[in-house]
Amino acid sequence: MTTRIRLVTFDVLHTIITPRQPIHVQYAEVFRPYLGAIPPERIKASFKIALEQAQREFPAYEKGHIGWWTKVVNDTALGAGADAKLVSDKMTTIIPILLKRFSSREGYLAFPDAIPTIEKLHAAGVRTGIVSNGDSRFRKVLEDLGFPEYLGPIILSEEVKIEKPDPRVFEWALRGEGLRAEECLHVGDELEADFVGAKSAKWNAALLKRSEGGKGHTIQELGEVLNLIY
Asked: Keyword set for this entry (predicted)?
């Protein structure tokens, strides 16, 4: 990099935060009192299918995240073998519980290197923000987990109705910031959405692979971002 980085944005899920327990384990726990015991591995397989279908049919949380996640949870339960009548009767009870859980530290925790890296970037005079294909609840999650108030801009696909890897979502992050694309760096864990998306917007990019790292533009921990800002 020949231009000093003035803004670093991060993806959220699997980059700076992670589920406190695997999603399918948490779903099984919430389902149990209402739908009976469903093997978590069946929920895991069904959730993957339901999530991918919702992402295809209703990109960027079309019509809002509550309806979007209601469909995902409903389809997950049915696909995992839950009784259809119970699902119909109990879904209005289950959905608020899951929405609340995944709006706070109850459902997520911060990676140990996330907040310290953001604080060090701030101390170095580098702005930090978010560009995520997430819904508006991530604002509450980040606040509840103690992320700094100066973290911003926060660009969430539900709010701007654009998803990575569309370069327009990165352009949105620059609105009113007085920055050029080459002064920005995006960090995330998905090759297409984060790395390719940022590059297509003429940003710098780093791909986070916590189990790998160390190859080209790939990093293994967020602290390595501090080596990329000059």
From this structure: Hydrolase
Three-state DSSP state, 69: helix
* Pair (89, 134) in one structural domain: no
Q: For residue 167, which of 138, 188, 191, 196 has the smallest C-alpha distance?
A: 196
What would the pLDDT profile of 196-229 be if each residue is shown by its tens digit?
A: 999 999 999 999 999 875 566 899 999 999 999 9
> Residue 206's domain is classified under what CATH number?
3.40.50.1000
In the numeric block, which tokens belong to residue 33? Answer: 């009192």
| Sequence letter at residue 9 | T
Question: Contact, 143 vs 168, CB < 8 A?
Answer: no
pLDDT digits 0-9 by tens, 151-201: 999 999 999 999 999 999 999 999 988 999 999 999 999 999 999 999 999
For residues 115 and 146, membership in a common domain is answered with yes
